[in-house]
Every structure is written in structure tokens, then in C-alpha cells.
Amino acid sequence: MEKKEITTGNGTGKYQQLLKDCELFEKMNTKSSYDFLSLFHEEKWPKNTCILNKEKLTYHFYIILKGRIKMYQVDSLNGKEVTIFLLTKNDVFDLYCLLDGCEHSAYYECLDDAKILAAPMDKLRTWLQANPTYYPQILHYAGKQLRLLENFVSDITFSDISTRLLNLILKNVNKKSENLELINDLPNEEIANLIGSTRAVVNRHLQKLKQNGAIKISRKKMEIRNLRKLMNQLKDRKKYAH
To answer: Which H/E stretch holds residue 241?
Structure first.
């Protein structure tokens, strides 16, 4: 694992502004969010930093300030990898350990240079016990994550590779700008991990989308060329599946 840089000092006011769109703070007043964030310190994790130590997840809670971090599992027999969540700014982990206090068998890896807020899990639980009105906000966030996980399991179980890829692309299109975000510069291997496939298979399907004019692929970037065509292809595949 790469060495992480830790920054101490009180930057709580700055973090309040940076995390104003984080769902955990939607119903917190200014004083409560300040007190909550005062439990955290900032860490800088270089790209390719991996968290493989389950104890680190058990004893610390994290909020992402900058960068993308994947949460993934690896099959111990064949080494196959699948990305469960692709986390970015305003996302948190490990929520499961916060709620049940048990070890979580998952791995994390930074896909970019990342800035993270970290807090000792015991201090966070103590704060929540003293401020129980904010438990519903935590549970709401957890419920959202469970729904995303449910959709992921359904997609990977019942949909073919082409449908999964179309779903992934369209899910990451900014509705206002119609630009592809979050996954637009990922290598095909990482795209494959997100849909339970392989690099070679994903490359073949992406080339088909490129040939029919739906996307543009440059050296390290994927762009949307015809959003309507992508949406129609997904619609047709779902119709065919039924």
C-alpha cells in the first residue's frame, strides 16, 4: 500500500463548504455539521493506494473529498475481480462497519489521487449516540446504497453484457450537459470490472458502439456522440429480452 499523507488542524469550516452536497448533511444544522466534521482529519491517498486491511475499515469511517475510489471483491480461486461501487466526492465508507461493528470483507483502491476525511469509528458512534436525531439520515443513505446494490445484482444476473454496458454508460451521463462522467477515462479493464465481464469482451462491445456512431473513443477517453441512439439501443434490448 502507498504511504498516505495525513493533514491535521481545524479545517472544519472549509469541509462544510466542500461537502454541502453530501447527503449525510442534508438535514444537519450548521453547528451539528461542524461538530460532526470536527471528528475528522484529512488524508491524501495517492493513485493506486489499496486498502486491504479489514481492521482499518472496522475502526475508521471515511468521506471522500476528491477522487474516485472503487470498492471491489476478488475471487480467491480464480482471481476474478468485480467492482461493487465506484465512489467519488461526497460518498462515504465503510457504512456497514459503522452500523454493525463487524469486519467488512471488501477491498478499496484509489483510481485517482484522492483526498479523504477520516474519523475513528468509536468517536463517530459516540457522537451519534449523543445526537440520535441524525440516525435516520445515516439509515437513509444506507438504504440508497442497498438499492444500488440490489440493482447491480439484478443487472449482473439477468442482463447480457451489451445491456449491462449500455446501462453503465447511460447511468453516468450528465443529464444537463449530456457528457459522460466518472467512467469516461477508465481503462476497459475497469469498465469490465463494473459489469462483471472481461477487458476483451468490453472492448468488442465498445467498438460496435463506436462503429455505429453512438460513442467516440480516443486514446484515453470515451465520449457520447449520439445519446438518443444509445437510449434506443437499450430500449430495444430490453424489449427483445422480454
So the answer is: helix 227-241
**Span between the terminal Cα atoms of the chain, in Å:** 46
| Residues of the chain above pLDDT 90, percent | 67
C-alpha span between 139 and 147 (Å, rounded)? 12
Question: Can you read off the three cell numbers belonging to residue 224?
Answer: 457520447
The conformational region for residue 90 under phi > 0 = left, psi -120 to 50 = alpha, else beta, is left
CA distance 214 to 226: 5
Q: Per the structure block, which three cell numbers stand in for 55?
A: 481492521
Whole-number pLDDT of residue 10: 56
C-alpha cell, 138: 445515516
As beta bridge partners, residue 117 has 42, 63
Find the mean pLDDT for residues 31-53: 92
> What is the spatial distance between Cα 80 and Cα 235, in angstroms, rounded to a whole number?
30
- Judged on CB neighbours under 10 Å (0-12, 13-18, 19+), 133 is exposed
Name 11's Cβ contacts closer than 8 Å, sequence gap at least 6: 42
- At 112, give phi and psi (nearest 5°): -140, 170
Mean pLDDT of 56-68: 91
- Amino acid 204: pLDDT: 96
pLDDT of residue 240: 63
Beta strands in the chain (DSSP E): 5-7, 41-45, 50-51, 60-66, 69-74, 81-87, 92-93, 107-110, 114-120, 215-217, 222-224
Cell triple for 162: 451489451
CB atoms within 10 A of CB 86: 20
**CA–CA dist 89, 217 (Å, integer):** 25
